[in-house]
Amino acid sequence: MKKIGITGGIGSGKTFVANIFKTLGIPVYDADTAAKQLMNHEPLRSKLKQLFGSSIYNEHDELNRSVLASFIFNDEKKLATVNALVHPEVAKHFNEWCIKQHADYILKEAAIMFESGANKDLDAVICVTAPEILRIERAIKRDNTTEEKIKAIITRQLNEEDRNKLCNYLIKNDGTAPLLPQVLKIHELLMEK
After folding, report:
1. CB-hemisphere CA count at 13 Å for 136?
2. Domains in the chain: boundaries
3. How far apart are CA 92 and CA 142, in angstroms?
4. Over 70: is that where the pLDDT of 28 sits?
């Protein structure tokens, strides 16, 4: 079974594209969602409480993401520490998930595929691309947030040009190029190999 990554900058539409692959029967692992879930369980919960105090969890012992974000958003060292804890747990969870899948290939969706090193254990990576202005517009609408916050996230991610150079396949999601033919072409190629 081939392990294929799918990534793209914030607002690029990688989840939307991953959902098209799902309709083709391809299992999709959402690394960002898995990370959020894993932070609500041991061993991550205890480690995060040790680092930031119990205030980052609510009365139901669920992660208060906005409180955690306030600690790490403008502190590269703390962000790196959290990533060093979370990424290995996500990788372990992903490998356990893969064992349960029965398909010619699976997709691992992650926003920071290259930044986290998650691409190293994959056979290929698909990038979903879109112009930055469109990505910002989509993310503002989706997340009900400000342009400044989205731009701050963009500065933390690998720039579009460098990310695209690292990918094996590109899907253009600019609102003009139809997505389905692009997805079907990549799907056929992955099914052949």
Report:
1. 12
2. 1-27+103-193, 33-100
3. 30
4. yes
What's at 139, amino acid-wise? A
pTM for the whole thing?
0.91
DSSP assignment string, 51-110: HH-GGGB-TTS-B-HHHHHHHHTT-HHHHHHHHHHHHHHHHHHHHHHHHT--SSEEEEE-
Backbone angles phi, psi at 133, to 5 degrees: -60, -40
Res 39: pLDDT: 95
For residue 118, what are its two tokens? 């998650």
CATH code of 1-27+103-193, in short, is 3.40.50.300
